[in-house]
Design brief:
The protein has one domain. The chain has two helices and two strands, in the order E-E-H-H. It is of the alpha+beta class. The protein starts with a strand and ends in an 8-residue tail after the last helix. The chain has a two-stranded antiparallel ribbon with strand order 1-2.
């Protein structure tokens, strides 16, 4: 099984990874600290994502988490 994608008429199947998203994030962080690998997403991007999530909570009439 997998996820079927069709882009510009070309269909591919992507097999799911057995690792969780958090695992990949931790591995990337470790590679950066240990080996000097580049940081692929800047902190500002994460902060912007958190603001969007907070706005979604507010739009749903809920209090954002952590406040």
């Amino acid at each position: 099984g997998g996820i079927e994608l069709e882009i510009d008429g070309v269909r591919t199947v992507e097999a799911p990874h057995e690792r969780a998203t958090y695992d990949w994030q931790a591995l990337g962080f470790a590679a950066n600290v240990r080996d000097g690998a580049p940081i692929l997403t800047p902190a500002e991007e994460g902060i912007a994502n958190m603001r969007v999530i907070d706005d979604v909570y507010r739009a749903a009439g809920m209090k954002p988490r952590g406040t």
